[in-house]
Design brief:
Distance between the termini of chain B: 50 Å
Shape of chain A: flat
Largest sheet of chain B: none
Number of strands of chain B: 0
Number of helices of chain A: 11
Number of domains of chain A: 2
Radius of gyration of chain A: 19 Å
Oligomer: heterodimer
Strand content of chain A: under 5%
Number of strands of chain A: 0
Strand content of chain B: under 5%
Structural class of chain A: mainly alpha
Chain lengths: 222, 97
């Protein structure tokens, strides 16, 4: 299963508040606003997750909201009647699917963190694009960065700018780009990245200094 | 397109340790007449001076980073309760085949 379907995400675009965690807490998700395959079942599942989870998990769920909603809907469609799905288990499962744990060998922490970083990057970029295009109205289209005021970029525009610069960076400096993904999209510390990548902490720090300079320079010259 | 990315990284890493007032001379020596490379490095060093805490804050919430750490830790995995999902069942089944 492909990690990510941009087109299907657009087809399932949900008219939620931009702050999805706010929508969660307000309970403002009415069936009419969900375009899941099975609207009432998904609503029940989402309510259960909301009731059972701590604040930390709420942040997690807010972030992967669209992915979980689709997974919950398809899962419920295939589940045996009477089967109870634990909210935490569904989160874990959704996460495993997102990072491609179905591959035969998921060897090592490096693979896991790289896959997680890549999955988070795709989710974040898609969300940023959708939020930006919603603000500008109209159909989905690639946003032209020249239209943005560089003095006050929104977090979304900034994320997209970083992502674009990162793609270019990866062409010339793939190892350093990988470090950026691990640190920025998987939240690893220098020490953790050192362990995962099998390089010294001092090398990580050198790479990190270089990467930040390179990306900033690239963004400023975009 | 960068002809030698490795060289760009290596010279940058050395140049950043050199006192700012000595960098111009250092770069001239290190770049051996490659003006394109030297200009790129000057731009990178300048950006580095201005980078502050650029990218230091991860794009994901810390709660999610914690979940990733727990998930990746083998010690935690051993003690993890088996989720009651069909997906997990079929995965175990595949492993046993």
């Amino acid at each position: 299963m492909r990690l990510y379907h941009q087109d299907s995400c657009l087809a399932l675009r949900v008219d939620t508040h931009e702050n999805t965690s706010g929508a969660w807490r307000d309970g403002a998700l009415s069936s009419a606003r969900l375009r899941a395959d099975n609207m009432s079942d998904a609503t029940v599942m989402l309510a259960a997750m909301k009731a059972g989870d701590s604040n930390a998990a709420e942040d997690l769920l807010a972030l992967v909201y669209d992915e979980l909603r689709r997974l919950a809907a398809s899962k419920l469609a295939h589940e045996a009647p009477g089967q109870t799905l634990q909210p935490t288990a569904l989160v874990h499962e959704a996460w495993l699917r997102l990072v491609g744990d179905r591959t035969p060998s998921f060897n090592g922490r490096e693979h896991f963190f790289r896959a997680s970083a890549e999955a988070m990057r795709r989710i974040l970029i898609d969300r940023a694009r959708r939020k930006l295009t919603r603000r500008h109205g109209g159909d989905y289209q690639r946003v032209d960065f020249e239209g943005f005021d560089p003095a006050a970029p929104s977090a979304d525009a900034q994320l997209l700018a970083v992502n674009e610069a990162l793609d270019k960076f990866a062409l010339e400096h793939p190892v350093q780009a990988e470090l950026v993904k691990l640190r920025y999209f998987a939240g690893l510390t220098n020490e953790e990245a050192s362990e995962v990548m099998g390089i010294s902490v001092s090398t990580v720090k050198n790479y990190w200094t270089f990467a930040r300079a390179w990306l900033l320079n690239e963004i400023e010259n975009q | 397109m960068n002809d030698d990315p490795g060289r760009e990284l290596a010279i940058f890493t050395e140049a950043i340790k050199v006192p700012p007032q000595d960098r111009t001379a250092f770069l001239r020596r290190a770049c051996c007449g490659d003006d394109h490379l030297r200009r790129k490095l000057e731009a990178l060093l300048s950006a580095s001076e201005r980078s502050g805490d650029f990218l230091e804050k991860p794009a994901i919430p810390s709660a999610l980073a914690s979940v990733l750490r727990q998930r990746a830790n083998p010690a935690n995995r051993k003690g993890r309760k088996k989720p009651q999902t069909g997906f997990q069942y079929s995965r175990r089944k595949r492993k046993g085949e």
